[in-house]
Specification:
The chain is an alpha/beta fold. The protein is built from six helices and five strands, in the order E-H-E-H-H-H-E-H-E-H-E. It has a five-stranded parallel sheet, sandwiched between helices. Helix 5 packs parallel to helix 6. The chain starts with 5 loop residues before the first strand and ends in a 16-residue tail after the last strand. The model is unreliable at 162-168 (pLDDT under 50).
Length: 168
């Protein structure tokens, strides 16, 4: 019986998120786990308070979600590049993954995405060897996650693409 049918990887394009993605690839290939990645664009990257009030912006986001429209139209180039890098990495390993794009507070949106896809495990990378040593994102995810959380430590050895801060 497969205990981890669906895995969600929190991905932002950083070196540590590529390590988390690599772990997701391993689960997918070795256990047949259905893989999803979630990219959360912080509101500050897509929200200009001079053009639209925060309440109006949140209403606009909700309207986009309700209509099933793609958030790629409002997220920035950095986000699009990160998603493309993830797709290339997954393709190079022969793995397909669903994508979830959210805008807002990263930990909260990752938790919502885990619920949305019905994840059995959530995979996150952590910058410090001790997840309790100040990484607010990881603390919040550990505290609020609706499923098990696999924390990938920064020292975990894996190969990831050039330009992500790691070595190939």
């Amino acid at each position: 019986m497969l205990l981890m049918k669906k895995a969600l990887v929190a991905f932002d394009g950083s070196a540590i998120s590529f390590k988390a993605l690599s772990m997701g690839v391993k689960l997918s290939k070795n256990l047949g786990t259905e893989l999803y990645i979630v990219y959360v664009a912080p509101m500050s990257e897509v929200f200009n308070p001079n053009l639209l009030g925060e309440a109006q912006f949140k209403e606009t986001l909700e309207s986009i979600r309700e209509k099933g429209e793609d958030l790629r139209d409002i997220i920035g180039e950095r986000a699009l590049k990160a998603l493309e890098d993830a797709r290339e990495y997954l393709s190079s390993h022969g793995v397909k993954a669903g994508e979830v794009i959210r805008v807002g507070e990263p930990a909260l949106e990752v938790i919502h995405a885990a619920r949305e896809v019905g994840a059995d495990i959530l995979i996150v990378g952590v910058e410090a060897a001790d997840p309790g040593s100040g990484d607010g994102f990881v603390k919040a995810v550990l505290r609020e996650s609706p499923c098990s959380v696999l924390v990938v430590a920064p020292g975990w050895a894996t190969l990831y693409p050039r330009g992500t801060g790691g070595e190939e």
